[in-house]
Automatic annotation (TrEMBL):
InterPro entries given in the database record: Ribosomal_uL6-like, Ribosomal_uL6-like_a/b-dom_sf, Ribosomal_uL6_a/b-dom, Ribosomal_uL6_bac-type, Ribosomal_uL6_CS
Keywords for this protein: Ribonucleoprotein, Ribosomal protein, RNA-binding, rRNA-binding
Large ribosomal subunit protein uL6 alpha-beta domain: residues covered: 11-82, 90-164
Role of this protein: This protein binds to the 23S rRNA, and is important in its secondary structure. It is located near the subunit interface in the base of the L7/L12 stalk, and near the tRNA binding site of the peptidyltransferase center.
Gene3D superfamilies for this protein: Ribosomal protein L6, alpha-beta domain
Positions of transmembrane segments: none
The protein, known as: Large ribosomal subunit protein uL6
Length: 177
């Protein structure tokens, strides 16, 4: 039995939510998000709460019950406050800069990496060695941050590379004589 799915999703002031044919649409100060729930669950809007219930007692229905509730909750949080993922760069000469709608990364390769910034996200480089990816869709923010990290993931010997802020890198001992 899902522990997450039992609880309703509270709709705060300033957010408009519509539920039609298991399609949940949330509109807030940051924009509008839409989520099509799985056919195994029912979503209903009662007052200022969204309830998610499984239609049957199958394993898939129980899985989608909690998942749907969490996705709707993230949607509501996204249109009200948004999500931010911070990345840090460790290494000599590693730096990032935003030029127009392109993120320019110097990561120790023979060439700079130019990453186009998607229209629905905001990417800033507050310092030359840090990057902040922010937007209203949690999945999209995490995906783009993961792609940027994937250009030079942290290595275990010196810890050089692009890592999430607060990420702890398991360090290995080098060769011994």
């Amino acid at each position: 039995m899902s522990r997450v799915g039992k609880y309703p999703v509270a709709v705060p002031q300033g957010v408009t939510v519509t539920v039609a044919d298991n399609v949940v649409t949330a509109k807030g100060k940051l924009g509008e998000l839409r989520y099509e729930a799985a056919e195994e669950v029912d979503t209903t809007l009662e007052g200022d709460k969204i309830w998610v219930k499984p239609r049957m007692d199958s394993k898939r229905a129980r899985q989608m019950w909690g998942t749907t509730r969490a996705r709707i909750n993230n949607m509501i949080l996204g249109v009200t406050t948004g999500f931010t993922r911070k990345l840090d760069m460790v290494g000599v000469g590693y730096k990032a800069a935003v030029q127009g709608n392109v993120l320019k990364l110097s990561l120790g390769f023979s060439h700079d990496i130019e990453y186009p910034i998607p229209a629905d996200l905001k990417i800033v480089a507050p310092t030359p060695t840090s990057i902040e990816v922010s937007g209203m869709d949690k999945q999209r923010v995490g995906q783009i941050a993961s792609e940027i990290r994937g250009f030079r993931p942290p290595e275990p010997y010196k810890g050089k590379g692009v890592k999430y802020a607060g990420e702890w890198i398991l360090r290995k001992e080098g060769k011994k004589k």
